Design the sequence.
């Protein structure tokens, strides 16, 4: 049993002390450190104190392709039926695990939506200038390859960065930090990497995990000489709502759509461009969600 005598005084430093999808682990962690010290030092505090760079934020609404819509509807109907059985106190072994697998499968459709590739090219065509440093966060290797190849065909030379890449990862980051360009990356760039000169981020990888989006945003908000403003572009996929029979509909506030928009609200809240919040209100209306409730909605666990 751990106690004060074992460790004495202790202090933990984290931007995300609550463990996503792990309430028991969160309780143990907070109990060990005797809670979170108040007042919490927020992103707004860090920007005000010039510890982090102010930023502009823009969300880009994405629609699923037709075949992805069909699979989405199928999985949504299965989720609704499994939920109904669980609410009816069905004791069939493994029912909760089956439901979780359906959630994960449905979340993958959003994370890996093919329609994200085109907007990535469009954003760069409209905003990229030589000498800038762009990070493009992809969900997995397949999406990274698709984005990298499409950018290359459109005249943009992107540098893939992942754990299985050919070449020296450290030297790749040094070259990127010195000369600029476009880096396509997956999760291996989330932690332990510091490239303060990065000016732009394009987030294609959908995640409601606070640790992940705080780390990704943090990559571009580091202070650097000559860097007065950072820019974050975010791809928000809106699943369709029409096409399901009434008995197969899930709750109106679909968890993944709600989580996607709640993450975007978090980004927009502290951005230097107030219009980003207005854009999100319009996106929320299109998704059939109540803008005022987004920050309070629960989200499904999409982590494997």
Sequence:
């Amino acid at each position: 049993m751990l106690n004060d005598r074992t460790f004495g005084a202790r202090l933990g430093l984290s931007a995300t002390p609550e463990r996503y999808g792990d309430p028991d682990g969160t309780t143990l962690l907070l109990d060990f450190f005797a809670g979170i010290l108040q007042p919490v030092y927020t992103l707004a505090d860090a920007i005000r104190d010039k510890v982090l760079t102010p930023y502009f934020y823009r969300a880009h609404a994405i629609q699923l392709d037709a075949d992805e819509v069909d699979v989405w509807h199928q999985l949504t109907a299965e989720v609704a039926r499994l939920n109904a059985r669980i609410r009816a106190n069905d004791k069939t072994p493994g029912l909760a695990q089956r439901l979780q697998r359906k959630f994960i499968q449905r979340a993958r459709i959003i994370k890996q939506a093919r329609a994200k590739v085109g907007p990535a090219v469009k954003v760069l065509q409209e905003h990229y200038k030589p000498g800038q440093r762009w990070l493009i966060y992809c969900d997995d290797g397949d999406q990274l390859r698709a984005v990298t190849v499409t950018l290359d065909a459109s005249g943009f030379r992107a540098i893939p960065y992942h754990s299985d890449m050919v070449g020296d990862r450290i030297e790749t980051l040094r070259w990127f930090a010195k000369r600029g360009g476009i880096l396509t990356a997956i999760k291996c760039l989330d932690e332990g990497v510091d490239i303060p000169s990065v000016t732009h981020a394009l987030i294609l990888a959908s995640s409601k995990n606070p640790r992940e989006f705080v780390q990704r945003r943090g990559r571009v908000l580091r202070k650097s000489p000559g860097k007065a403003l950072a820019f974050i572009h975010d791809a928000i996929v809106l699943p369709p709502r029409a096409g399901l029979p009434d008995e197969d509909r899930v709750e109106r506030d679909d968890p993944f759509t709600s989580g996607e928009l709640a993450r975007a609200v978090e980004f927009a809240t502290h951005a230097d461009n107030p219009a980003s919040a207005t854009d999100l209100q319009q996106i929320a209306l299109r998704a059939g969600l109540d803008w005022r409730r987004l920050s309070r909605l629960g989200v499904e666990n999409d982590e494997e």
In short: The beta strands are 55-63, 133-137, 158-161, 181-185, 200-203, 230-238. The longest strand covers residues 55-63. Residues 66-87 form the longest helix (22 residues).
